[in-house]
Amino acid sequence: MPIVPETKSWTWVLERPCPECGFDASTVPFRAIPRLTRENVAAWMPVLERDDVRVRPNETTWSPLEYAAHVRDVFGVMSGRLQLILDQDDPEFANWDQDAAAVAERYGEQDPAVVAVQLRDAGLAIADAWEAVPDDVLGRSGRRSDGSVFSVESLARYYIHDPVHHLWDVSHG
């Protein structure tokens, strides 16, 4: 049975703790995002060395490898969105279908060692990008095609929940 595509909007993580992983993005200071990203990157490395890295816990849940490949891509997508907000006035973000990406890129068939390097590089790059954002642009905005508007600061908090949540998925889910 294939993975059921994700259809819900996760923007609520900006307002309250996640009932699944417990992470409360609403309380995270913007300047903590780079540190949290680097810690998350480091925590993924042993996950990608696990013997069961390719094993799905059930038919409808990604394997640790698939989650890691997704997180790697989240780092890249969100880095692009951050750059758009910094470069343009109120840009609209291109849609990204994470489930289509997982299928098209064959996340479960990728080499875990390669994913580890790519995840590390993309994660450290976005951590550096968040760190370089000056305080006077934290209010600049961008939007998704569904109408959700993000400032630089809210995008950072929205973003950080994803890798934290997926690390929880592979550790507790």
Question: What is the topology, as strand order, of the major beta sheet?
Answer: 1-2
Give Rg in angstroms: 16 Å
- CATH class, named Mainly Alpha
Q: Structural class of the helices, strands and pairings? A: mainly alpha
The count of strands amounts to 2
Anisotropy-based shape: globular
**From N to C, what is the helix and strand string?**
HHHHEEH
Straight-line distance between termini = 19 Å
Mind telling me which CATH architecture this is? Up-down Bundle
Report the major sheet.
2 strands, antiparallel
How many structural domains are formed by the residues? 1
What would the CATH topology be? Four Helix Bundle (Hemerythrin (Met), subunit A)
DSSP summary: helix tally:
5
